[in-house]
Amino acid sequence: MLFDTHVHLNADQFNEDREETIARAREAGVQYMTVVGFDRKTIPLAIQIAEDYDHMYAAVGWHPVDAIDMTEEDLQWIEELSSHPKVVAIGEMGLDYHWDKSPADVQKEVFRKQIRLAKKVKMPIIIHNREATDDIVEILKEENAAEVGGIMHCYSGPVETAKECVDMNFMISLGGPVTFKNAKLPKEVAKAIDLEHLLVETDCPFLAPHPNRGKRNEPAYVKLVAEQIAELKGLTYEEVTQRTTENAFKFFRINS
């Protein structure tokens, strides 16, 4: 039994076969998923999918690439949705310096506002980080995000930073890159971070694990991530699936 903690089944790439994709996941042992909504288009569909399927949950937040588009009304909307019984986290939020649609100062302000909102509603957060590790960690510390904790989604940074995040009450979630032959950092993190602090995810439709790299990712492939972590840590596949699923239940405060 697996818990894919970060999926975008609300993305257009699944419009033609969403139901079949979920069925394939269940057949692969992926019983639980969190669908992440990150803007005005994807948030309602994330909640709709969570309502329509058992063992599926939603996270609601605002993606840093689109930070410039977020209004105070959007923030209020996210706060209202946080009380929905199937919403288990705020996010994804964070910083993305790869794309230049939203200036860094705007991204930082939107990031801080969402952390403060999460603390207000007492919900954990999901962090998106691209080429912004130092600023992410600094803001998490300044805003005392440890109060609610969170997930470092699809973590690809160094071991030292991962340990720093664990100390701030954050889980480290590994995705497809841990299976890439040339991805040294995720493999080092998988070895170094105790299993009690790890989660697994796909971030589908993006970042498909080897041997499906370059294809559309889907939740069924999270099994490949768990298998790789088991191999790297010298554990059985069953040990990794059981503990990461338990970790997800605990993190999202879901009664198994």
Automatic annotation (TrEMBL):
The EC number(s) this enzyme carries: 3.1.-.-
Top-rank lineage group of the source organism: Bacteria
Pfam families named among the record's database cross-references: TatD_DNase (PF01026)
GO molecular function: hydrolase activity
PROSITE patterns reported in the protein's UniProt record: TATD_1 (PS01137), TATD_2 (PS01090), TATD_3 (PS01091)
The UniProt record lists the keyword Metal-binding: yes
Alphabetic keyword roster: Hydrolase, Metal-binding
Enzyme's top EC category: hydrolase
Keyword Amino-acid biosynthesis: no
Designated name of the protein: TatD family hydrolase
Natural source organism: Halobacillus campisalis
